[in-house]
UniProtKB/TrEMBL annotation:
InterPro entries: ATP_synth_F0_gsu_mt
Claim: Mitochondrion is one of the keywords in the record: yes
GO aspect biological process, one term: proton motive force-driven ATP synthesis
Name under which the protein is recorded: Mitochondrial F1F0-ATP synthase g subunit
Transmembrane residue ranges: none
Region forming the signal peptide: none
Short name of any one Pfam family annotated for the protein: ATP-synt_G
Length: 196
């Protein structure tokens, strides 16, 4: 028998003799209370350690990010211009995204809106997935032009009014977006017209 194998057998036999001397007292209430105390102390120590790590890592991460930002700001040329533009756009982007999120929350609460459940999504998108799987079935689907036209003809006045208001809102938001994008109500700012 090689020496390494005999050492492994010897270690295994020592481990087995040590394990046989262990006494298990799991049936008593003392052991259960000690285990509960040990678990709570371990949890408190873990939370303390996590708070220490996060408090010490926070400044280190922020200083590393500041160092990287200052190094990137020193880059010149076109790359430097792009980096400075992106750097200048981060705070307003974060601000307006937070504003938009809060506005969306207010609208959802005000209109008593809730996101649809999974079954609603499945019933709505099932015909679409069937059309993509079998394009010949498009003729019989609810999205066929003849079916859409029949739905419009059978709609009552309330449904038509809701559709009209929604269409007006979409057109209005698109128009306002165009005006903001052009920074002018009519046409684009630019050079004056020249004739050929």
């Amino acid at each position: 028998m090689p020496a390494t194998a005999s050492r492994a057998v010897l270690r295994q036999s020592q481990f087995l003799t040590r394990r046989s001397a262990v006494r298990y007292a799991s049936s008593t209430s003392e052991a259960a209370s000690k285990a509960g105390e040990a678990a709570s102390s371990a949890a408190s120590k873990a939370s303390e350690g996590l708070s220490r790590v996060s408090s010490s890592a926070g400044p280190a991460i922020s200083s590393a990010a500041q160092g990287l930002g200052s190094a990137l700001r020193k880059v010149g040329g076109r790359t430097g211009k792009v980096i400075s533009f992106v750097d200048s756009m981060i705070p307003p982007t974060v601000y307006y995204s937070k504003v938009g999120l809060e506005l969306a929350k207010l609208v959802f609460r005000g209109q008593n809106m809730t996101p649809p459940n999974l079954a609603t999504f499945q019933t709505f998108f099932q015909p679409l997935t069937n059309v993509f799987r079998n394009p010949a079935a498009f003729k019989n689907s609810s999205f066929a032009p003849s079916n859409i036209l029949a739905r419009v003809r059978s709609a009552d006045k309330k449904q038509l009014a809701v559709a009209g208001v929604t269409a007006a809102e979409v057109i209005g938001f698109f128009t306002v977006g165009e005006i903001v994008g052009r920074m002018n109500i009519v046409g684009y700012k630019g050079q004056s017209e020249h004739h050929h």
